[in-house]
Design goal:
The protein contains 17 helices and 25 strands. With 528 residues, the chain is of the alpha/beta class. It starts with 17 loop residues before the first strand and ends in a 5-residue tail after the last strand.
Length: 528
């Protein structure tokens, strides 16, 4: 660098194109890729990513501190720079049953580990606003570190209270007005574009017509097949340019800005004193990575990962987490004896968003039971507790999934990761759920009492140790099977997994039942 050439130890020829700082994903959950960290690295590094900041609250909800340590140890064997934020809300609420707890003592233990740089998204925004001691103590314990936020729909005085606790960022904004207000109050905005939540189209004008200061691009949750087919941060760069953001601003949003926010002073630029984490691209529209360097070493070329691979080795406790009883049809029955019709609350799925609608619908009663009505796209949805073998089942109805027959089940169910299942009849739901118990967790599809397809995820019921290509092939098969049963949702298992997240409005379901997120309480299925 500079005007006078300095003798180099090695020379890399890039005859045309651009040399950019390698990309940083400032907010993700690696577990959502369905891959272990080492398999994930082999997938995203060839796309130009040198660094991710991950909140491992998915595995923490299942296996606690040991799960977080596995993520740190497995990622350390790769060239990808993986930094961690400490899961702040495990469990996310008291409205569900989790497999573990990350309390104040666990936070102090994790805080001392290498590459831990902050407190993960503070999802209990209600607790922060109310001044609840437990969550404020966690924030205070991480004073001086980065505190990530999670503030869907927070505005006005409530937003002020939330920010005043020391929370610096938010990735949950879905409208321009919401994001603008948060920016005006000093927050950093992470524009999310993942497999399910896609907010870039709505929020891009905040950059293209305003200021790119304190704005980043992040993935949050992305499945393996989307990483392979669309890409990682390179995909977000393409999308940003499509939405009218200047390419230079877009690059800053995945390099300089996240490095500045997290205080990663050696990353995010090409300058003296910076690490040589670089990506060579032909143009600033496609951002296709030709060569990727991390720490001055070529780690990928023409889409091929060159860094080698060591097989993950999770402990046995991380592979035996499906602690649930066999589910039988009687466990799923919804009884009603007050007439031939009942008014019930139903979850309205909004494709492409994490929030759901709180619906009230009339349903028929047959022999004292309320059953699914696929002709009206009203399916039964159940959450089966899988950590403590309680046999507890939350039951309700879902609209917008489109399944016409059969059932699907998943052991990925944010954030406590009990088993969530949706189906047309109780027998197929039971077959799908019980299949997950047999394979150590994952996804399953059943029809007419038989399993049509599945994907084992033996690491905490969340991740496979297979390659992204192998996982993607199985996922495509699952998606094809679910589509053949009438479901037109693009990422059905991802959509299913967020029906159980009781910190994003409006109506969700956990093993304790239906959750009115705005009231932050369990509500009766029946509207009396």
């Amino acid at each position: 660098m500079g005007e006078r050439p300095i003798p180099s130890r090695a020379r890399l020829e890039a005859r045309s194109g651009y040399v950019l700082p390698a990309y940083i994903d400032g907010h993700t959950h690696i577990e959502s890729s369905l891959l272990t960290p080492s398999r994930y690295a082999a997938t995203v590094v060839p796309r130009g990513t040198c660094c991710v900041v991950t909140d491992p609250h998915e595995i923490a909800n299942v296996t606690g501190v040991e799960g977080v340590k596995f993520m740190i140890e497995d990622s350390a064997r790769t060239p990808l720079r993986v930094y961690f934020t400490i899961p702040s809300c495990v469990p996310a609420t008291n409205l569900e049953t989790s497999g573990a707890t990350i309390g104040l003592e666990e936070i102090k233990e994790l805080k001392s580990l290498k590459r831990v740089i902050g407190l993960g998204e503070v999802m209990n925004f209600t607790g922060v606003i109310r001044g609840e001691k437990s969550i404020l103590e966690k924030i205070k314990a991480c004073e001086g570190m980065t505190i990530d936020g999670h503030a869907p729909g927070l505005r006005g005085p409530e937003l002020c209270a939330y920010i005043s606790a020391g929370i610096k960022s938010d990735h949950e904004s879905t409208t321009l007005d919401e994001a603008s207000e948060k920016l005006s109050m000093g927050m950093w905005i992470m524009i999310r574009e993942g497999s399910t939540s896609k907010n870039l189209h709505d929020l891009a004008p905040i950059v293209s017509k305003g200021s790119p200061e304190r704005v980043m691009l992040v993935t949050d949750d992305t499945h393996a097949e989307d990483l392979l087919e669309e890409g990682h941060m390179d995909h977000l760069l393409r999308r940003a340019v499509e939405e009218g953001i200047d390419p230079i601003d877009a690059v800053r949003m995945v390099t300089m800005k996240p490095a500045e926010y997290f205080g990663l002073k050696s990353l995010g630029g090409i300058a003296p004193g910076k690490w040589a984490d670089l990506v060579v691209v032909d143009d600033l529209r496609d951002f296709e990575a030709k060569t990727v360097l991390i720490g001055g070493k070529v780690v990928a070329e023409e889409g091929i990962y060159l860094a080698g691979f060591e097989e993950p080795s999770p402990k046995a406790a991380l592979k035996n987490t499906m602690n649930l009883k066999e589910v039988k049809p009687r466990d799923l029955s919804i009884k009603y004896n007050l007439g031939d019709e009942a008014t019930v609350r139903a979850i309205g799925l909004v494709e492409g968003q994490l929030y759901t609608e709180h619906l009230k619908v009339r349903m028929g009663v047959v022999d004292g039971e309320v059953e699914a009505d696929p002709t009206r796209d009203l399916l039964k949805v159940c959450v089966v507790e899988r950590h403590k073998r309680t046999g507890r089942v939350g039951k309700g109805f879902l609209k917008g999934f489109g399944l016409e027959e059969g059932a699907v089940a998943s052991s990925i169910a944010h954030d406590s990761h009990n088993v969530v299942a949706v189906g047309v009849n109780d027998i197929d739901i039971c077959v799908a759920v019980n299949r997950l118990k047999a394979i150590g967790g994952g996804f399953a599809v059943a029809l007419r009492s038989k399993v049509l397809s599945d994907l084992p995820l033996p690491v905490a019921g969340l991740m496979s140790m297979k390659t992204a290509e192998e996982v993607s092939t199985r996922m495509k098969r699952l998606h094809d099977v679910v589509a053949s049963l009438g479901c037109e949702v693009k990422s059905p298992f991802m959509a299913l997994s967020f029906l159980t997240l009781p910190v994003i409005p409006e109506l969700k379901i956990t093993d304790l039942g239906l959750i009115d997120v705005e009231k932050f309480e369990v509500v009766d299925l029946f509207v009396r």
